[in-house]
Design a protein that fits this description.
The chain is built from 4 helices and no strands. Helix 2 packs antiparallel against helix 3 and helix 2 crosses helix 4.
Length: 79
Amino acid sequence: MVDPNFVSDNPFFDARDLVQVKYEMLRCVERDGESVVKASTVFGLSRPSFYNAMRAFRSEGMEGLAAKTPGPRGPHKLN
């Protein structure tokens, strides 16, 4: 990650907090007008990760940016 906020000594920005990293990446594109390619490179994520984060944020808000629990999403046995 190369974003100046996350490499500074500012305790508010934590590069280990993936939700915050994704939110700041989305904000960089929406508010600052950066390209998706540049923002994803600066924040150390892929372009598909940007679009997945954008889709999740628009549908679920901040909760959509949190990691989902792994495993099956529903029943997987046949009766």
